[in-house]
Predict the structure.
Amino acid sequence: MSSHRLILFLLTSCLVACTPRSVREAQDGQISYAVTSVMPEDIQAIADSCNEEYTAVCSYEHMCAFCREDFPRVFAFCDTMPVNFYVLFVVRECDSVYIHESIQAIKKYDESFDNFLILSDSLFDPENKKRRNFLFFKEYGGHREGQKYIKYVDNYVPAGFDDGCYTPRLFLYRKRDGLVYVTHYDEQENTCLPQQDIKELTHIICR
């Protein structure tokens, strides 16, 4: 392939991947999935429309080794609770390959699981809505890449809860009441779902 054709191929691939859509759908020989782009208020609307009184939303970043290691603990806990459970991706909407890899990893725990959300890129400041040096130099975890997640935590987590932006992190919504509990990272237990949070969540959901 000539250098001109290679450049054209890369640019075309990038433009296709970065086309904004409210819902991303894909299917290959192994998995099929749909990912819905949401603003924080949309998450509350989803919680209000679900059958269960509580909706648990877990943030997820596949690039983070700790997140991959700690996520099964969150997934297993939510599977035992009478809640609607969603996984919330906090990366850019155009990162289709990254999202696909993330979903592949999550479906290993439950092939039928299909409740995937992604924070809308509308939460980025105007100067950061387009990634600089994208395609070749991704900045996962950097300030610009994590900006919309930081806004979600800073602006929508009730006062009194830890304002950290780590993942995985569980956000518990109650119908009509919004966020009622947010987990925290415990250094001694080295987990984002410590025993204290498990007890609190169990008490809230099952009382």
About this structure: The chain has a mean pLDDT of 83. Helices lie at 3-17, 40-49, 65-79, 96-107, 147-156, 195-206. Strands lie at 23-27, 32-38, 54-60, 84-89, 116-119, 169-174, 178-182.
